[in-house]
Amino acid sequence: MGKEGGVYPMRISEKEDAGAKHVDLMLVANDETRHYCWVKNLSRLLTAQVSDHNGEAYFCRRCLNHFTRQEKLDQHIEYCGQKKAVKIEMPSEGSYISFQNHIRSMKVPFVVYADFECFTTKVQPEPAKSGVDRIMQMLEHFLELIKQKVEGGEPSEPHTKILQKHVPSGFCYHIKCFDETVYAKEPVIYTTQQEGEDVGQIFVDRLTKDIREIYQQNDFKKPMTMTEEDKIAFAEATKCFICDQELGEDRVRDHCHFTGKFRGAAHNDCNLNYRAPKFIPVIFHNLAGYDAHLFIKALGATEGKIDCIPNTEERYISFTKSVAVGSYKDKKGKMKTLYQHLRFIDSFKFMGASLQKLVESTPADAFTNMRREFGAKPMDPGLFKIGHFESENGRSITLREVIDREKLKHIVTHPEDYELGSRYIKGEKVDKDAQLTLLQDYLVRTNALGECPMRYYQRHGFGRYWTGEKIGLQNISRRIRHTLCADHMIDIDMKNAHPTLLSWYCHENGIECMGLDAYISDREGLIADLMAYEGINRDDAKTYLARHHQWEDRQTRA
């Protein structure tokens, strides 16, 4: 029983075959006792809580929503069975839903894009074991199999065979400010100079130094400066630029605390809540699966608390590091340490594709940072595949053709000969330190400049979310600017629908949804939201859109 006397599922049987017999138990507990009761008829137990109707109701055991017919329940279970078992409470009739997280629509002032590159060193195999050792190993594995059979589950592999070790060879990070007049710095590039360097610790030290520098340069609010045009715009404004609702007597002037520029007229409450976050996102592509393992120990060993959102024991959705940037006196006169927070997030959770795929699907005019580094035409980060670095000791690397130092330098420094450079790279070994250094510099630059579709998400609050599902849903809601009556949302299957499908439902059935027509006509915006919400690449999003929404036909009809 829940805190308010309601019922919610605690455990659902995994054996949901149609012919299987289910026995429902209800756990009634207080501070002292716990007692199980047999539920003979689930409908009789729950119907009185949800309806005054005297007839039988058919309940879904996974979400405890009810239906008037068994056929409706069967249709619902087909979709609900794919989700976790949890009690879902729908809004009451007559209520409304609308976008409220206006604070999260503010662009994050500073973002760090980062990437590591590694050598792969072959691990020497263990020496052959004696006959007695092999027998003991087989016996241990046999006992492990018996234990797995008794406890249930799949037997684990007896050993993990380590074939190679990834040793960081360099890193690059680029601190991007929303306004380069506030803060601008060239990308930080580091490549190993000698064997045994702790590249992870060097990365942490340099990044924290730059974060302290950012804080010291912006540790004050700039006063507002208004031009004559700004004064006229404020006087003539009828809607809050933050929430897009009508302005009343509580209108105030909102300005940027970093530049002092007037942003628009706003409600007083909106103005007070519209603040820059107290953290700086640090973005890696595939952070959880790769880069985090290269520097997480060094990060944890430095001063400051580290918090994480774990996915498994070895993988993290995100982790946040507190960096000491200053101190202040509290009301009692005691000195307190002031912290800036670094929030490490994985862009792969927003765009589930490789960097090369993302580059291919990104318009050429989006590579502003790449053009600044390499010239008019961007270079392909996939030109040198991961795994081409073979060993740090031998300083060898696999290219597609033996090329000399001058030719390689020409490829890196003359992007106008990009096509020629692509043909140069083939598949032989080059044992030259200088060539390797050039390639290291090239790789860490191209992979860490943080472009591709990332610009879209930074414009819409990217950095305040941990996964693409959340930001995709928020962007759909924010861009539609809808106030949707809950009378059309009290159906559980409608709640389970993809938000873009829900928008189409409103469009096709004449349900008022402000801004919807403009939203569905923006195909690029739909594709970007689908990429984030579903965790798919651009091509899959376009296929999804064509299959589920029959885009061309609907666009013609609109």
Automatic annotation (TrEMBL):
InterPro entries: Endonuclease_7 (IPR004211), Endonuclease_7_sf (IPR038563), His-Me_finger_sf (IPR044925). Pfam families: Endonuclease_7. This is DNA-directed DNA polymerase. The lineage of its organism: Eukaryota, Metazoa, Spiralia, Lophotrochozoa, Mollusca.
